[in-house]
Each structure stands twice: as C-alpha cells, then as structure tokens.
Amino acid sequence: MVVLAFTIICHFLQACSTLPAPEDKEQTHHLPPATDTASARYTHAEVDKHQHQSGFRLLTLSTNALLSRVALADHAMHSIDLQYYIFANDMTGHLMLQHLLAAADRGVRVRILIDDNNFDDKDHLFEALDSHPNIEIRLFNPFQTRNPSLVSRFTQFMLEWRRLNRRMHNKSFIVDNEVAIVGGRNIGDPYFDAGSDTHFRDLDVVAIGPVVQQASEAFDGYWNCDAAYPLNKLKKTDGSDQKLVAARQLLQQDVRAFAQSDYAQSVLDELPDGPTADKRGAWFWGDAELVADQPEKIEAKHDEPALRIGPRLKAMIDSAQHEILATTPYFVPGDAGTKHLVSLAQSGITVKILTNSLASTDETAAHAGYVHYRKAIVSGGVELYELKPSSGQSQPSTSLGQSSGISLHAKTIVVDSRQVFIGSLNMDQRSKLLNTEMGVIVDSPGLAKAISDFFQTATQPSNAYRVEIAPTSHQLIWEADDEGKPVTYQDDPGATTKRRAEVTLLRMLPIEGLL
C-alpha cells in the first residue's frame, strides 16, 4: 500500500509540475560602475590612490554586517545584485527587503538570486516584490513545486536526487558595481545576532576596486545560467499588484517593530560612529582575485577541477612557508586532505584549524564525518581547536539578549600572515564537489592580521577547546579554561547525550560524500 501511494505521488508530481524551459528568460548583465554619486566619487578617489589594487574592510561584528548592507542599499543609485544560499523570511530578511524595495522605488534595478533549498515564501513577500518593475528574483536549481510540503520535498528528492542534492552556496551583495560584500553570512536572524536561536560567528568583507567588477561578472554567470529560473515563471498565482500593496504594509509594520526592538537599540548604542560601509575610514589594500565555481559544476557527472575553486586554494595553501590558519564550521578533509595537511605540518609549517565542537555545531551529520579524521589530524601535528558553545555569549562590544548558544560559520584561510581567503567554502566534501562556492583571495598583510586576530581571539582557552592526544592513553582530550582555571575533558565536552547518539548513528552510514 505504501509503495502504491508513493508511486501515485511520483506520477502526480511528474505530470503536474515541470520546470519552464531554461531559455525562457531574458539575459541581463551588470551595469557599468557608477560615477555620478557621492559614494562613487569617494570610492574612485580611494581606488585611484592604489592602482590595480582592491580595498577591504572586515565585517566582524554581526550588527555591523547588517548595518553595512542596509547602508549600501540606501545609497544605491543604479543597481543592486544579491546572491545568497539563504535569504530568510524573518525579521532581518524583512528589513533587507524593505530597503531593497525602497531602492527599487527610486529607480534602482534590483536582481536577487536565491538558492531554492531553503526558500520560504509562505506569505508571498518575494512574489510580491518580484512584481515590482525594478525587481527581479530568480531561484537557483528549484524544486518543481512552490513551497513544497515535507512529503513533496522528500518525493522530489527521491525523483531528482542527483540534481536537487547540488546547491548554490555563494554569497555576494553588489551595489552600483562599485562596492561588494563577500563572505560567509547569509541573510537571516542567526547571522546578525538578531534571533533567540543559535547565533553564528561569521566574517564578511566590504570590497572596492577591481575585484568588484570580477564579482559582478561572476554574478552574471549565475544569473544567466540554465539553473537560474525567474520566480515569475515558477509561481502559479495571480493578483501580484494587490500582493505588492499588502507586502508594503507588512514590511512597514515589521520594520517599525524592528526599530523599536531591544536589538535595534543595542545597535544604536553600539555603533553611533561605527565603521559601517557608508562611513569614511581606512581600508586594507592588496592585489585581489574573486574566485567562484562555475555554475556548470552542479551538472558535472564527475569531478572537473576546472569548474571549481579548490585547485586555486590548494595552490595558495601549498605556497605556505611558515603558517596556515584555517577557520571552517564543517571540517571533513577526507583521506587525501588529511594526508596533505599532516604533510604540511610535518614539513615544519605551523597548521592551525578552528572548527565547531559537537556542542556548538548546527550540523551533527557533518560532525560525524569530521570525527573520523580528528585523531589522525592531531597525531600528525596539526593544531586543532573546537569552538565552545558558550550559551548566551555575545560578541565584543555588543549588549544583545541571550541566545541558545553560538556556532562557528566563518570560512577563512590565512597563509604566512599575508595571503587571505574569505568566502563561502567549507573544508568538506560537499563544498568541494557538490555545491557551488565563491570568495576572494587577497594579498594584504593588514587584512591578514585582522583575520588572524579574529582567529587568535576565537581560539583562546576561554572560547575554544584545544584537541590533543593524551600522552599515556593516546586518546583524544580537550583542553580549555573554565572560569579562568585549566580543565581537561576526556570526551566531547558540553555535548548532550542526544547529540552523541546522533553522531554514533550517523558514523555508521555511508554518507561522507554528501557532507
């Protein structure tokens, strides 16, 4: 009976839901860099002082990262291009939508590309904004039905596993082809310390200079690829004009409530003169390269290194003479990656890696893949740190409310205190082979020091466990400080019995290639 019902559902989905033809959309491209705005004149004046180099500011504080996006949207005069794995339908998502809508109302062309895996439009906000003449929304690699139920989603995954298992993980925010934000943050409350659930510790950079043009070209490649579908070709409802009116009212109410929240007051108290993207101030300068997987990566039947950024990052790591600092929330290096990192450490290069502990991770499946390599990594001489969950911990200088804990989400590499990668790529098999990723590679001692400072703070004994091998038992131990006193744990510290059981179960499954 169950098999019969499943078969009927499969046939129903195949018969009633098909994606439109990939060519059934307009090809559009980035606009020329702005020259007629105050921001553009300032940017050009700064870039002209550093020929052929790009400038960067590191967005460490979550509140700063949110305000920078808001400020850039408010200063846009010609175009805004956004590309995200997650654009959440929550408080900060609504805040961004309200400012994007305001930009569109004053004539700015807004293009929004979102991966469909986590796309949520239950109240038709995105559909309503898509009806605005200056806003177009496209979904990457979409499901065949809008807002699918759990049964429908599961069924579609079963029918089209190979396609739907591959996602666009890229993250960029480009304004007037003059300034861009690239890094690890999605759009949503957990990435800006705005919710009551887990808060992510993450990093972005604001960029100006030649690297912005490269980001725009990468965006166009995804925007016009066959896997990007216009939302208005996928929706099945009418009444968009009325929906836009309703969306304006809803967004105005939500933003008014946001402005009166404790969070907004904390932001005002914290950053009255802070270094948000619209403020003048110092930049880190250096030769920079925007690196992005080709969108065709999701269609490749076998690994094609030419389509992905991994070889370029490996070359950067292999150039190390002294030190490698890597931050990754999910660390599943595989046998080859483990041997490579150990060989670097045993050649005399200091290799330090920061990832999530079992207690802080938001993906127990990824942690199950990681623990298979943990002992070999540490035994081979790599310094390994795991972030503490630190329930309720806030970032420096913030005064936000309690959360259920923090989780690492930043993805960075620093080589020899000079070369830097910051972007969306995790050090796992999914980022390497299945999802598409992007980031920037920069030769800048100043930016390298700023990211290294973040790493050093995060790996302090008060913030992270250092994973070691016990000299007598030769088993893993975790060393840290608890209220200023050294403490050693014999097993994954702070993890619940439920989490330990999940990892034990997941380790028995042949899923590493999916992690």
Automatic annotation (TrEMBL):
<protein>
    <submittedName>
        <fullName>Cardiolipin synthase</fullName>
        <ecNumber>2.7.8.-</ecNumber>
    </submittedName>
</protein>
<dbReference type="InterPro" id="IPR025202">
    <property type="entry name" value="PLD-like_dom"/>
</dbReference>
<dbReference type="InterPro" id="IPR001736">
    <property type="entry name" value="PLipase_D/transphosphatidylase"/>
</dbReference>
<keyword id="KW-0808">Transferase</keyword>
<dbReference type="Pfam" id="PF13091">
    <property type="entry name" value="PLDc_2"/>
</dbReference>
<feature type="domain" description="PLD phosphodiesterase">
    <location>
        <begin position="404"/>
        <end position="431"/>
    </location>
</feature>
<dbReference type="GO" id="GO:0016740">
    <property type="term" value="F:transferase activity"/>
</dbReference>
<feature type="domain" description="PLD phosphodiesterase">
    <location>
        <begin position="164"/>
        <end position="191"/>
    </location>
</feature>
